Predict the 3D structure of the following.
Amino acid sequence: MEFSVWLGFFAASWAISLSPGAGAIAAMSSGLNHGFRRGYFTTFGLVLGILTQILLVGAGLGALIAASSLGFAIVKWLGVAYLVYLGVQQWRAPAKPLVAELSEPTQVTRRQLVLRGWAINAVNPKGTVFLLAVVPQFLNLHQSLVPQYAVIGATLAFTDLVVMAGYTVLASRVLSALRSESHLKALNRVFGSLFVGAGLLLASFKKAA
């Protein structure tokens, strides 16, 4: 991939990472409930989900999902169900301030946070369709595709690690400044509603003809 082409994709990747979506909601939710150091493990999962999508697109499975109405519907509704499930879980989360979280054993493990982040991005046909529409514009089909996909994956991973760190620390700082149970409960319900909203938006997403 030529440097000038990479610069164009680098700029586009920032726009992709900064755009609000399920990943940003997940990062802020983790920062809200677990603080920055533990909550940031969700971002590692989000990045792994992106890389999974790139592998699927690179292997041609993404095109198959995009072309098959049944395959697209299965993946889409799995994503919808998972986001709604996360929303319900967040809505019902206990309103504990960060100081309490740090002094008590955390029930959610780092591995669970990684898996949650991975599932959000991996089971998302919008991501697949987006990669199929955008990534080919930056590929040179006369050169080996593997290193080009590797550069694209590394670029998206870098921008997501930076942007989601910002979302996570923002939410964790908000949490550390709050002590009122009612305020924390309200924040949990806001993020729960955002997850459900993201699920409803995904439900309305249709495969291009």
Observations:
- The first helix runs from residue 3 to 18.
- The chain is about 80% helix and 0% strand.
